[in-house]
Amino acid sequence: MTMTTPSYKFDAGLVNVEKIAQEVVRRLVVEKSNGHESKPVYTNGTRTIQVPIGISVRHLHLCPEHVEILFGKGHQLGVYHELYQKGYYAAQEQVMVVGTKRCLEKVRVLGPTRPFSQVELAQSEAVALGMKLSVASTGNEPQTQPVTLVGPAGVISLPGGAGGGAFLARRHIHISDVTAQEWGVTAGDTVTLKIDGLRPVVFDDVLVRVKAGWRTEVHLDTDEGNACLIRTGQMGTVVLP
Ligand SMILES: [Zn+2]
Asked: Measured in angstroms, how far is the CA atom of residue 139 from the centroid of ligand 1?
């Protein structure tokens, strides 16, 4: 067996040590499995599989029109660092999210732009802001709440509901169509996620999201990650139906 020293290339603008460490852990996990994702195993009649966890820090998605209002005419999002899912990135742009009790400064925009704007927060952040948020799968479901965003060039108020708003993201797992077939699940199914460690937690109702080309990754928010002391790049166990 030959050992090669992996080389890691990062964006020139990337100076965040934490982000570099996370990305190294992730790439090592992929390399360890020879580029192939792990396969389900049977234990006592239950099918389980090891999957990487990604902790989604508070963030927002913007439509192109809102990018221009918040950051100026003709403005386009810049890449701060790429995300684990190919084609998605944390943008250089940050905005202030205004609640009824206080504001959250420097909430990062994720790219690329989307058809409608949406703000994804953790429950602890919503409480601090004075906002009452519901769990939703996407940002234009009826239960999403109105929220105001302040950028360097302007202000927008998302109306909530079908017009886009703030919400607590439903915990979910991204998988490719190939993986979905292999696991025998389809988009909209739910699976159970077990996190081991010093503070083990079992998460039910993890929504399965499927798209060709997606890499397998669970997305939890920071409250969920903190509850079981897990960080981005660490592994969890999915229990398949
Ligand atoms: Zn996700």
From this structure: 12
* CA 5 to centroid of ligand 1, rounded, Å: 31
Residues 62, 45 share a domain: no
Tell me the CA–centroid distance for residue 2 and ligand 1, in Å.
35
Q: Tell me, in angstroms, the distance from the centre of ligand 1 to residue 173's CA.
A: 7
Residue that terminates a domain, selected from 145, 169, 193: 169
> In sequence order, what E strands does the chain have?
41-43, 46-56, 59-61, 79-82, 89-98, 103-111, 118-120, 135-136, 147-150, 155-158, 166-169, 172-175, 190-195, 201-210, 217-221, 235-240
Domain at 226, CATH number: 2.40.40.20
How many independent structural domains does the chain possess?
A: 2
172 Cα: distance to centroid of ligand 1 (angstroms): 6
Boundary residue ending a domain (169, 190, 224): 169
Q: Are residues 62 and 161 in the same domain?
A: yes
User: How remote is the CA of residue 166 from the centroid of ligand 1, in Å?
Assistant: 16
pLDDT tens-digit map of 177-225: 999 999 999 999 999 999 999 999 999 999 999 999 999 999 999 999 9
Cα 31 to ligand 1 centre (Å): 22
CB hemisphere CA count around 78 (13 angstroms): 10
Question: Model's pTM, two decimal places?
Answer: 0.84
Nearest to 23 by CA among 35, 39, 9: 9
192 C-alpha to ligand 1 centroid (Å): 16
- Alpha carbon of 4 to ligand 1 centroid (Å): 32
pLDDT tens digits for range 119-144: 999 999 999 999 999 999 999 999 99
Same domain, 133 and 181: no
Task: Examine the domain organization and report whether 118 and 221 are in the same domain.
Answer: no
Q: Are residues 82 and 48 in the same domain?
A: no
